[in-house]
Design goal:
Strand order of the largest sheet of chain B: 3-7-14
Structural class of chain B: alpha+beta
Order of helices and strands of chain A: HHHEEEEEEEEEEEE
CATH class of chain A: Mainly Beta
Number of helices of chain A: 3
Distance between the termini of chain A: 30 Å
Shape of chain A: globular
Oligomer: heterodimer
Number of domains of chain A: 1
Shape of chain B: globular
Radius of gyration of chain B: 21 Å
Strand content of chain A: 35-45%
Largest sheet of chain B: 3 strands, antiparallel
Distance between the termini of chain B: 15 Å
Number of domains of chain B: 1
Order of helices and strands of chain B: EHEEEEEEHHEEHHHEHEEEEEHHHH
Radius of gyration of chain A: 16 Å
Number of strands of chain B: 15
Helix content of chain A: 10-25%
Structural class of chain A: mainly beta
Number of helices of chain B: 11
CATH topology of chain A: Jelly Rolls
Helix content of chain B: 25-40%
Number of strands of chain A: 12
Chain lengths: 174, 414
């Protein structure tokens, strides 16, 4: 049976929890069908900022195709929390404000490091999981975010100048 | 029961910046800091602009960075749902020569064909304690699919492995051979382990690292992982895992010769040799701690998970560590054996896994114990013990529930 047909049928019947397990290339420990679907949608192209002042805003529920900058041109408000080599690396800064407090998942498609900064401090991650062979989201990081507050997303140590990203609200506890 | 030696143990304030277990001189600290940068950084395609120090990934690989498997130096985590492979999972291959080399590389750079995919399903096994409670453990079954270079030989042995923690490896390397021999001699004949002697660069040395103690040193293990799992050459291993049949892989552009410079390899080795074993305050009251340790010894666990080993680290005076291993290999029975593609059991010997840092692993979540991460809890891990450890497991199974819980809480506090 064609995997894609199976996936679509399961989504239509509302058994999404089974659907995500049907595609072994995109296997996360949670139901990541929302992220996988977003990654199949049309992406909004967006050049990242080089610092907090130039960081463009992003919204949850959309797929962004980011144009990163050479990391040497980026001025982070807080040093990236993961210590990595910067030679040949790309990075950038985005702004995010969420309307409701709670857990949000940030899904990325390539190997870069992501920090969420709130009032000058990195927000602790709640959890993370990866699916390195997925042709879509490859790593998902969970954060507990406050509502109506300016947050900075700092991207660092990317291997290339292009990267995709989504932010989605977690509907229920993982 | 004496409390464990704190040698090598430091409380981590930030998992992402693990400390050294001892004070380092300036060159040592610089190498440690560089090692952390290299350990965390993803490697990139050969020829990537401005990245000549870290290019040459693949073209066949499993992860692009050391940290991708050994996240923050810790053991790989598991994922609870059925069928999913842990991120820190590697399928090693053994037996007849195959087009796939020593590991199945599940990823490839653009333009290259990944070697294949590993699919897994779980089979439940149940049993009952002497006190009446039932237990359930799960056994993994693997299938190789989407094979990019033809069918592997039917006698190929599948060696599923989850990444171990790298904490404390420098101290384990500093255990004198005489101490290994002494630990072996002290064990009852029925449980006696073996030193995993390896021929290495014309010398016969004890294997210490890897789930079956295949590697003789941190450098040996590091070079092996770089070559097999990231497609990176280094001084000790000039070739990666491309086989003769994989001509595209062999002809791929190189990121230097070797791809991992001696400076970077040295820094990676220093990082691992000096990284402390995470220490967490125990929630066990002193009496409970002593009772748990006594149960561990009474059940026979301490025969192999030795609570004390001497170490002679270079540049430090002789010390004693509580790693809870004897660094020997023991037969743990057919239940844990690697298996051939058709399911026949192969080798059943495993190095006694160190238990220090267990509290840190539990706190990290998604616990995945034993060589393939099949055990979701310490209890499941104990219940998989067979072979030379069968008697210890049976004594555990005969304990009352409260004592089993105390013993497991104690191991979980290490």
């Amino acid at each position: 049976m064609n995997t894609r047909i199976t996936l679509a049928a399961l989504l239509l019947s509302g058994t999404a929890a089974t659907a995500w397990a049907a595609d072994p290339a995109c296997s996360f420990k949670w139901d990541a069908s929302a992220e996988v679907e977003l990654y199949r949608s049309a992406a909004t192209s967006l050049p990242v900022g080089s610092d907090a002042a130039t960081a463009p805003p992003i919204q949850s529920g959309r797929l962004y195709a980011l144009e990163l900058k050479p990391q040497g041109e980026v001025r982070y408000s807080v040093a990236p929390t993961k210590k990595m080599l910067a030679d040949g690396a790309y990075g950038g800064v985005l702004r995010l404000k969420v309307p409701a407090a709670g857990q949000y998942r940030i899904a990325i498609d390539s190997g870069y490091w992501l920090d969420v900064i709130h009032v000058g401090k990195p927000v602790d991650t709640v959890d993370f999981n990866g699916s390195p062979t997925c042709d879509g989201p490859r790593k998902i990081v969970v954060f507990d975010l406050p509502a109506d507050t300016e947050l900075l997303l700092q991207l660092s140590a990317a291997s290339g100048a292009q990267a995709k990203l989504t932010v989605t609200r977690v509907a229920k506890a993982n | 029961m004496a409390p464990p030696a704190a040698t090598g143990r430091v409380e981590f304030t930030d998992r992402r910046s693990p400390p050294a277990w001892r004070n380092l001189d300036e060159p040592g600290q610089e190498a440690f800091d560089l090692g952390l940068l290299v350990f965390n950084s993803p490697w990139v395609i050969a020829g990537t602009h401005n990245a000549s120090r870290r290019d040459g990934l693949g073209p066949l690989f499993i992860q692009a960075s050391c940290d991708g498997c050994h996240n923050n130096g810790a053991r790989g985590r598991g994922e609870p749902p059925d069928g999913l492979l842990p991120n820190s999972f590697v399928m090693q291959l053994d037996g007849p020569a195959s087009p796939y080399g020593a590991v199945l590389n599940t990823r490839a750079l653009p333009g290259y064909t990944p070697e294949g995919r590993v699919e897994m399903r779980w089979i439940a096994r149940t049993g009952r304690y002497a006190s009446g409670e039932t237990w359930t453990i799960r056994e993994p079954r693997y299938a190789l699919t989407a094979m990019g270079y033809g069918d592997p030989h039917a006698d190929t042995i599948l060696r599923p492995r989850i990444a171990p923690a790298i904490f404390g490896t420098g101290l384990l390397q500093a255990v004198p051979v005489a101490a290994l021999q002494g630990a072996r001699a002290a064990q009852p004949r029925k449980q006696r382990g073996e030193i995993a002697w390896q021929d290495h660069d014309g010398q016969r040395l004890p294997g210490r690292f890897g789930w079956r103690a295949e590697s003789v040193s941190v450098e040996d293990q590091t070079a092996r992982a770089l070559a097999r799992e990231m497609g990176l050459s280094s001084r000790p291993r000039a070739q990666d895992d491309c086989t003769e049949q994989q001509w595209q892989c062999r002809d791929a552009p190189q990121g230097g010769q070797p791809e991992v410079s001696d400076e970077f390899l040295h820094a990676l080795v220093v990082l691992q040799q000096e990284m402390a074993v995470p220490l967490r305050p125990t929630a066990l009251a002193p009496d409970a701690w002593r009772a748990g340790a006594a149960l561990f010894a009474k059940a026979g666990c301490a025969t192999c998970h030795s609570p004390a080993l001497p170490v002679h680290p270079e540049g430090s005076r002789p010390l004693q560590i509580s790693a809870y291993t004897d660094l020997l290999v023991h037969d743990l029975g057919e239940g844990l054996a690697d298996r051939r593609i058709d399911g026949r059991a192969a080798a059943t010997q495993w190095r006694t896994a160190p238990l220090w840092g267990m509290a840190h692993a539990i706190a990290n979540g998604d616990l995945a114990l034993l060589h393939d991460g099949r055990a979701r809890s310490l209890e499941e891990a104990v219940l998989w013990h067979g072979g030379q450890a069968r008697d210890a497991r049976r004594r555990f199974e005969k304990l009352p529930a409260t004592q089993r819980a105390l013993l497991l809480d104690w191991v979980g506090s290490l």
